[in-house]
Amino acid sequence: MEESWDFDSAPPEFKQVQPVLIGLFAVSGTGWLINYFTTIRTAFRDRTPGVSLIALTNNLAWELVFAIFHPPPLLIATVIVRSWLFVDIFVLYTTTRFARASASSPLLKRYLPVFVAGGTLGFASAHWALSVQLSPIEAFYWSGMMCLVTMSASALGILVQRGHTRGASYGMW
């Protein structure tokens, strides 16, 4: 176990609230899984992507780094992060499937796989660099927060750009 993931050396105050934090993480993780399934269902229903490629590649990169290279030591956290990665691959498939049809840029239509691969590799290198610079646990939270901000901001941007709610649903929010 990496030293920075060592919860055994945590202060007693943290150990007192750790079960509550683990429970909240499990609830949050389940909520994100519901969001991913809803995103897939909504994209197939409306035939349009419900998430931006920037946010999606950022999320996928974060999940790759923290599901494979720096998995959390707690079993529940590892299971949740790896579940996110598994389901997010289907979100990526669904998004890219409908993004080609709805893309207004011929460059994006033609080179969509290159944009997705490049974005994922670029964001993965940034998440990896942050985990090396700070520590895996600090990068887990800080870069995870940046994924959340990117996802939220781009979801609002998609609504404004499209001028309608196709591709979105209350379950995704």
Automatic annotation (TrEMBL):
Primary site of residence: membrane
InterPro entries the record matches: PaxB-like
Keyword check for Transmembrane: yes
Any Pfam family hit: Pyr4-TMTC
PANTHER family in alphabetical order: INTEGRAL MEMBRANE PROTEIN (AFU_ORTHOLOGUE AFUA_5G14600), PTHR42038
Assigned protein family: Belongs to the paxB family.
Protein name from the UniProt record: Uncharacterized protein
